[in-house]
Amino acid sequence: MTAPISEQLDTDELLESGQRKMEWARQHMPILDSLRESFEQNQPFAGERIGMAMHVEAKTAILAEVLAVGGAEVAITGCNPLSTHDDVSVALDAVDGVTSYAKRGVDDEEYYEAMEAVIDHEPTVTVDDGGDLVFAIHEDYPELIDTIVGGCEETTTGVHRLRAMDDDDALEYPMFAVNDTPMKRLFDNVHGTGESSLASIAMTTNLSWAGKTVVVAGYGDCGKGVAKKASGQNADVIVTEVEPRRALEAHMEGYDVMPMADAASEGDVFITTTGNRDVIVEDHFEAMSDGVLLANAGHFDVEVDLEALEANAVDTYEARDGVQAYEMADGRRLNVLAEGRLVNLATPVSMGHPVEVMDQSFGVQAVCAREIVQNSDEYGAGVHEVPDELDREVAEIKLEAEGIETDSLSDTQEEYMDSWQHGT
Ligand code: RBV
């Protein structure tokens, strides 16, 4: 059984470095700061055990800390084998009420063992990013489901997975689709993914965006962000899509839209954001130029067919930290970042989304955890949209922290908006 991280690593230096990262994040998370104050007073999670599987770095650590301050016993592990910051994991493990099992660079077996260590705490609430925790509980520990009041899911892929479970009547407790709220989706998916993916790629390779052709696979919220920011860095952007309206939207934004079969020979950098598998496959590798960069910003490492790439390569070697080169028989080198895993979190220098963005997403997580504990009777098994007033609450805290005031509707305006009799 996996031991808490502080029993696995020599903690002295790691602890200080992790605490410093957490302090920086804390200073830039006004939403969680405000919720911390109210949770400290009201203890909404007294007696609850919260199991979490998320990217364990500084912002996530502040979320876990805030839940613990609210009375929860928190157990946490990673949701990706490469996204954990060991120093933060150690610092988090030292926080009162929190046990962290997350460690960077674990293999599949260790990854699931750490998940089991979290489950061993018998959580009453689960907080997931990608659905691995909720899935492991349903698959291997169904006896715990009775005492679980509900949970929250952070990301598009996880919500998609939960909806598929729900459609099969296989989801046996309530889960909030945190990803789908305006406060998460419109900021985290668009700006967060755009900024952090490009930043990670740039820092990992030390190469420029200007003058490059960047192929963005998928024009959902994440693809929109990546395309917009790449274009803002003076790259030419090509979008590939399967959905006709999204393809049109990309076209009307001024991007070239074409199938991957055509884009393969045009691109210098490829960034996948589809949430689906086999987006870049053997035929595409054959058409690519020497030196291309292949990066994935989708939750799982299934978008670039690495098995096919490996099978076709005559040689492979680490070109830089976080960059694996695959040499083809004709001498072309195709460079894969972060082993095809989430490029914004999984290269050695990745830091995930900007702090302000995660403050919003995790603000929604925190109020959803509070809601599921306080009003569990109102939610049956299945996927639930987050009540709009909770999302508004988080937006209002943020506006207040930023010192931004808004207008409010007058009585006559309210009446006008509610009526259908007014015409010309
Ligand atoms: N994400 N987390 C971070 N903690 O730094 N950065 C991104 C972090 C989340 C984001 O909300 C997205 O939905 C998910 O990671 C994909 O796994």
Automatic annotation (TrEMBL):
Sample GO molecular function, one term: adenosylhomocysteinase activity
UniProt xrefs under SUPFAM superfamilies: Formate/glycerate dehydrogenase catalytic domain-like, NAD(P)-binding Rossmann-fold domains
Cofactor: NAD(+)
Subcellular location: Cytoplasm
Residues reported to bind NAD(+): 155-157, 189, 218-225, 241, 276, 297-299, 344, 353
Database matches in Pfam families: AdoHcyase (PF05221), AdoHcyase_NAD (PF00670)
Entry binding sites for substrate: D129, E154, K184, D188
Source organism superkingdom: Archaea
Stored SMART domains: AdoHcyase (SM00996), AdoHcyase_NAD (SM00997)
Gene3D superfamilies: Adenosylhomocysteinase-like (3.40.50.1480), NAD(P)-binding Rossmann-like Domain (3.40.50.720)
Pathway in which this enzyme or protein is active: Amino-acid biosynthesis; L-homocysteine biosynthesis; L-homocysteine from S-adenosyl-L-homocysteine: step 1/1
Residues covered by the S-adenosyl-L-homocysteine hydrolase NAD binding domain: 189-350
InterPro entries on file: Adenosylhomocyst_ase-like_sf (IPR042172), Adenosylhomocysteinase-like (IPR000043), Ado_hCys_hydrolase_NAD-bd (IPR015878), NAD(P)-bd_dom_sf (IPR036291), S-Ado-L-homoCys_hydrolase_CS (IPR020082)
Database matches in PROSITE patterns: ADOHCYASE_2
GO annotation, cellular component aspect: cytosol
Similarity comment: family membership: Belongs to the adenosylhomocysteinase family.
Protein function: May play a key role in the regulation of the intracellular concentration of adenosylhomocysteine.
Protein name as it appears in the record: Adenosylhomocysteinase
Organism listed in the record: Halovenus aranensis
